[in-house]
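Lab notebook, bench 4. Still working through the backlog of constructs that have no structural model yet. Next entry is a single chain of 68 residues. Request: give me the structure tokens for it.
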Amino acid sequence: MTAEGIGRASLPIVVVPHPVGDRDEALVKKRGEEIAEECVRVLTTPVAELEREFKDKKYPLPDALMPR
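Model written out:
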């Protein structure tokens, strides 16, 4: 809603899968690297390309989220 309010309905959102923490240090490191790569990609991709990619993207709420 905020993105639409500023005229950027296709604002990219990086979704971080949970749980991020894990007992396996190698798995935590791999997840962190993947998240960082996606952040870099979104921050360095031309706006027009991101607008095309994210224009119709949906972000479903997690099952564990309780309505307020």
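Notes after review: The chain has a mean pLDDT of 81. The chain is about 45% helix and 0% strand. Flag for follow-up if needed.
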